[in-house]
Structures are given as C-alpha cells and as structure tokens.
Amino acid sequence: MTPTPTVPLWEVFIRSRAGLSHKHVGSLHAADAVLALQAARDVFTRRGEGLSLWVVPSSAIVASDPQEKGMMFEPTASKPYRHPTFYEVPDEVGHM
Amino acid sequence: MYTQALNDRPAAAAVEDADQAERFQARIDAEDRIEANDWMPEAYRRTLVRQISQHAHSEIIGQLPEGNWITRAPSLRRKAALLAKVQDECGHGLYLYAAAETLDASREELMDQLMEGRARYSSIFNYPATTWADIGAIGWLVDGAAIMNQIPLCRCSYGPYARAMIRVCKEESFHQRQGFEIMMTLCNGTVAQKAMAQDALNRWWWPCLMMFGPPDGASQHSDQSTRWKIKRFSNDALRQKFVDATVPQAEYLGLTLPDPALAFDAATGHWTHGEIDWDEFKQVLAGNGPCNRDRIEARRAAHENGEWVRAAAAAFAAKQSQRQAA
Q1: Smallest CA–CA separation between B182 and chain A, in Å?
Q2: Is the C-alpha dihedral spanning B286, B289, B294, B299 positive or negative?
Q3: Which of A22, B25, B162, B211 could bridge to B156 as Cys pair (CB 3.0-4.6 Å)?
Q4: What is the CATH number of domain A9-93?
Q5: Please, which contacts does B313-317 make with residues 24 or more away whose CB atoms are closer than 8 Å?
Q6: Going residue by residue through chain A (96 aa), what tens digit of pLDDT does each one get?
Q7: Is there a contact between B258 and B205 (Cβ–Cβ < 8 Å)?
Q8: Residue B87 class from Cβ within 10 Å (0-12 exposed, 13-18 middle, 19+ buried)?
Q9: pLDDT tens-digit readout, B111-165
Q10: How far, in Å, CA of B45 to CA of A57, rounded?
Q11: Is-contact B170 B46, C-beta < 8 A?
Q12: CB-based contact (8 Å) between A35 and chain B?
C-alpha cells in the first residue's frame, strides 16, 4: 500500500458569540483554505458553537519555546508593582 | 497547538536524563498538565500515541456497524438522529487523530496503520448490527460503556488528549439517550418488538463488558499509565461502575440481563456479574471476531474510493497557489 500523502494542517479558531474573541478549538487537515473552512464548520460547529470561524495554516504560527519558559515569563513575576494591590490606599479613601 | 516550528526535535537521546524524568513525574504528581512541546519521556509519548490512535480508530470503525442502518431506519426522526450520531463519531475520530498528531504521529501514517491491520481498535466494533434493536443496544450500552471510560480521560495528564475528550463527552450523552429511547420504544411495542430488544441485549451485553479490557492484574499497560495519570481508574473499577449503572436501566425496560450469576451484594452495594469469556475477547482482538475482516475492508474501500477526491483537492490547491504566485 502506498503511504497516504500528507495534507496541510490548519488551526481552527471560533468566536462563540458576538462580544467574545476567537478561541483556538483544535486543528484539521485540508488541501486549501476553502476546504479548511468547510471542514472546520463540519467538525467544530455541529451544535451552534460559533458565529465566526478562522482557519490559519499551522506552519504560519510562531510560538515561544517551552524550554525557555523561565527566561520568557519569569521577569513579570518579580514585578509586583505592576499590580494595583501593590499600592496601599487607606480605607477611609474608599473604593479606588 | 501543533506548531511545526518547534517540532524539529533532536534525535531522542539513548539514555534519558534521570533529573528530567524526575521533574516530569513531579509535574504529573502535582496534577500539572503536559502540553505538546513540553519535555516528556519517550515511553510516555509512545503510550499516548498508541492509546489515542487506538481510540481514534475505534471512533472511525465504530461508524460502520451503525452506518449500515442509516438507510433502513424506521422513521425520518430516527434516521436524522442516527446520521447525526455517525457524523459525531467521525468528528470524534478527527479530534483524536489531531491530539495524536501533537505527539509527532501523522494522521496519514496512523490511518495507514489501521488499513494495513497494524493497529488495533475496540473489540466491540467487530460484532455485527443485525437488527434495528442493535442500534438501540449500541447507543445505550456501547456508548454508555464508552462514556464511563471517557469521563476520567477528561482529566488525563496530557492536555491535548484531555481537551479532545471533553468535546467528545459533551457530544456522547446524546448518543446514549437516543439508544435508550429506541430500546424503550421497542419495549413498549409489540411482543415481537420487545423480543427483538431482548435479543439485542443478549448479544451485546458480554461484548460490552469486555470493552473495559482485561481484568486488573492481567492488563499490560495499566500500572505505568496510572502513575502517569493517563489512566485514573482500573479496568475492573470502570466495568463495575457500568454494571451498577446499567442493571436498574435494564430493569426499567423490563429486560433481563443475560447473566444468571448477576446478583446484588448488599455488603459492598455493588452488582456482581458472572465470568467473562476472556477467550472470546482474545480471539476478537487477534482478528477472529465475526466482522474483523469486513471492517478493515470497508475502511480500505472508503479510503480508496475517496482517492480521486483527495487528488482533485490537492491539484486544485496547487493550481490556485501557482496562479497566486504568477
């Protein structure tokens, strides 16, 4: 049996309702963008899951390296002054 | 996310770093989820690819016994429901192949393994659906057993698999209810219809108990899978849950489970069942079930007959991208 040739991989994003952003829901294979959209509709929105679909070629996504998670994200953890709770406001001032 | 930019992994080191393995187990013990590009032991990856692909194959082959009845459903309502259910199974297969792909196994390679008979799928789909009542029994019992097995997998340590299972479980509950409704309608029907329901139950009950796999102690992969939190409950524990849930449902239908040894144990609060024929289970897994050859042949035929569609789609995509480049 000849091996089945690979078909490009796409990432699927759905906006579940107006006012929310598109969210990644999974991936699928399709020869081109039109087929990817149709397949995304059939595979991911059979029960009213969304109002809008995006499909993006997986190869177009650039991701951060999990090995460098520490270097990438740790610096924000050591900067508590970026959060409102870092600052003291006396109770009598009320809600701020 | 299955970003290929990060998938150029260096060749697996012959000996894995013991420190890394220890940190990995510590993450698992802390109920952290493992994601696609995280470091993982090769054996963890292999175990998951095997389990997820078998699961995907089961969904795909699982379409066959029921698909056989779509054109013969007794009403338009039943036909629409069955069509939707079979379409769901196909979707579940695709979610699962996508989850396996995050572990560097290509969907095409996995499908080829299935068609060449190099991969396994659930033993249950090697039994035939010979009457309409079988469609009721499959939904009620086979999907009921699958749900028991799949709910704990929603908390599996591997993130992409767990997320796929959450989607699957959300959709699966309709499958079981539509099956039970078919059984209920038959049981409230004529004497012949009720007999048909009883006959389907007689034939599906034992193979359904086998779905949970060999008894604890005899299962090859259980211990390590439990340590890795891929598996949360033992085969026997899940089987027991299924029996306890199903006995009162059968009673409601007025049907008799085909097990004279079935008895309620007041001390434990569980139903104990008779001896399962593990020899039959082994035979079915070895390829000697009633429909093993048919299933693979049907899958291959569907694949081969779809070849021109894939070729046309690829040719059209190539032409479009050539035009865009020009």
Answers
A1: 22
A2: negative
A3: B162
A4: 3.10.20.520
A5: B313/A7, B313/A30, B313/A31, B313/A32, B313/A35, B314/A5, B314/A7, B314/A31, B316/A31, B316/A32, B317/A31, B317/A32, B317/A35
A6: 677 778 999 999 999 999 999 999 999 999 999 999 999 999 999 998 999 999 999 999 999 888 888 888 887 778 889 999 899 999 999 998
A7: yes
A8: middle
A9: 999 999 999 999 999 999 999 999 999 999 999 999 999 999 999 999 999 999 9
A10: 25
A11: no
A12: yes
With a CB cutoff of 8 Å and minimum separation 6, the contacts of B42 are: B12, B16
The ipTM assigned to this model is 0.85
Candidate from B6, B164, B317 with C-beta closest to A63: B6
Q: What are phi and psi of B113, to 5 degrees?
A: -60, -45
Contact residues, chain B, for A42 at CB < 8 Å:
87, 91
Within 8 A by CB and 6+ apart from A78, the residues are: none
Domain range annotation of chain A? 9-93
Residues from chain B that touch A11, judged by Cβ atoms under 8 A, are: 1-2
Count of CB contacts below 8 A, A vs B?
A: 84
**B298-B47-B11 Cα angle (round to 5):** 105
